[in-house]
Specification:
- By secondary structure, this protein is of the alpha+beta class.
- The protein folds into 2 domains: 4-99; 109-243, no CATH class.
- Helices cover 30% and strands 17% of the residues.
- The chain is built from 7 helices and 8 strands, in the order E-E-E-H-E-H-E-E-H-E-E-H-H-H-H.
- The protein starts with a strand and ends in an 11-residue tail after the last helix.
């Protein structure tokens, strides 16, 4: 699983994020963007962050290092902002830390020098049903001359429907993905070739290994999947099912 560090200081909120992530410092002397378990969509967003970040790394897409961040209850007492206090109190326990990239800046399409990176990101977003990489908000950074993909929490939407139990993976497998608003929508013609290169990198064994990075604490039980291992197996089933179809891949043959 991802390593775990303890939060030593809450530095500042990132107001542009809908879930109010914040910059924190940890006991490994690292600085992280903390995504809180107590935010609106709960821990399933954190699961999506870990799974898609790991998949990105397997595909050669740069994405910041992740850690678990253990947050103590006494941290809230030092914050003057009541909204932040409430969020910290609701997030006691294990949260997600995304390595802060100092000096990074927002993605500018004009500076993209590696077309293959764009196509791999487009493939990953289609596979994981990411709806949050539009030209208005690409969730991409440029750091040390390279493009880094961030903010994967809007992916894997299917798990938000598991309140009453794990659903049928066939529906997700066949679900089409709308490319029209994507920042790299103009790369659709390159997807079949990218698909042929990427698909051999992924199989059930690889996907099961990816899910092992997710902490047990975030794999909340649902009817029919009462243990963390049951939940991991459910995610693997959904991803394997999607990998076995091409209904979701823009430009692919039916």
């Amino acid at each position: 699983m991802i390593p775990v560090q303890s939060v030593t200081r809450y530095a500042t909120p990132l107001r542009e994020g809908g879930s109010l992530p914040g910059i924190v410092e940890a006991d490994d002397l690292g600085t992280y963007v903390c995504k809180f378990r107590g935010a609106g969509q709960g821990v399933r967003v954190l699961v999506a962050e870990v799974v898609v970040s790991r998949l990105a790394s397997l595909l050669g897409i740069r994405t910041p290092r992740l850690v678990g961040l253990d947050l103590r209850s006494d941290l809230a007492r030092y914050e003057a902002d009541e909204e932040v206090q409430d969020l910290l109190r609701a997030s006691v326990g294990l949260n997600l830390g995304v390595d802060f990239l100092p000096g990074s800046f927002g993605f500018d399409r004009a500076t993209l020098t590696d077309d293959d990176v764009a196509t791999r990101i487009l493939w990953l977003d289609a596979f994981t049903a990411n709806v949050d990489r539009s030209w208005r908000n690409p969730n991409l950074l440029r750091w040390h001359g390279e493009v880094w993909a961030i903010d994967h929490g809007a992916s894997l939407y299917f798990h938000h429907g598991w309140v009453g139990g794990v659903t049928d993976p066939a529906r997700f497998a066949a679900q089409r993905w709308d490319v029209s608003d994507h920042v790299f929508a103009d790369r659709v013609g390159e997807l079949p070739a990218a698909d042929a290169r990427i698909t051999p990198l992924l199989d059930e064994t690889v996907l099961a290994d990816v899910l092992r990075d997710v902490p047990d604490d975030w794999l909340e039980a649902v009817p029919g999947a009462e243990t963390p291992e049951d939940m991991r197996a459910a995610y693997v089933r959904f991803l394997v099912a999607r990998l076995g179809t091409r209904s979701w891949l823009p430009g692919a043959a039916a």
